[in-house]
């Protein structure tokens, strides 16, 4: 299956941010992107990889790991 190439506006909408954030990711080379002439596109797989790499997993139930002093 071919990868979809997203515009900066589409990436911003999917992330729930303004267009400034994906543009900053591109400027800082923190996400894979493709230049098509003067246009910039982000592969959907690159966006998913970025999200996966920056997803923080919960620690778990902290109550069970805390012990009370006797």
UniProtKB/TrEMBL annotation:
Pfam families: HTH_17 (PF12728)
Matching SUPFAM superfamilies: Putative DNA-binding domain
GO molecular function terms attached to this record: DNA binding
Record keywords: DNA-binding
Domain of life: Bacteria
Domain Helix-turn-helix: 5-54
Protein name as it appears in the record: DNA-binding protein
Phylogenetic classification of the source organism: Bacteria, Bacillati, Actinomycetota, Actinomycetes, Kitasatosporales
């Amino acid at each position: 299956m071919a990868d979809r190439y997203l515009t900066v506006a589409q990436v911003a909408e999917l992330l729930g941010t303004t267009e400034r954030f994906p543009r900053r990711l591109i400027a800082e080379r923190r996400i894979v992107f493709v230049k098509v002439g003067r246009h910039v596109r982000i592969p959907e797989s690159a966006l998913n990889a970025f999200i996966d790499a920056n997803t923080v997993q919960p620690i778990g139930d902290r109550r069970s790991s805390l012990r009370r002093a006797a």
